Amino acid sequence: MSDRYCVFGHPVGHSRSPQIHAAFAEQTGQALSYQAIEAPLDDFAGAWRDFVAAGGRGANVTVPFKEDAWRLADALSPRARRAGAVNTLLLDEDGGLHGDTTDGVGLVSDLRAHAAPLEGARILVLGAGGAVRGVLEPLLASGPARLVIANRTAGKARQLAEDFADLGAITGDGFDGITGPFDLVINGTSASLAGDLPPLPDALFAEGGLAYDMMYGAEPTVYLRWAAERGARTVDGLGMLIEQAAESFWLWRGVRPDTAAVRERLRRSL
Ligand code: ATR
Question: Among the four 62, 97, 152, 188, which has the fewest Cβ within 10 Å?
Answer without folding.
Answer: 152
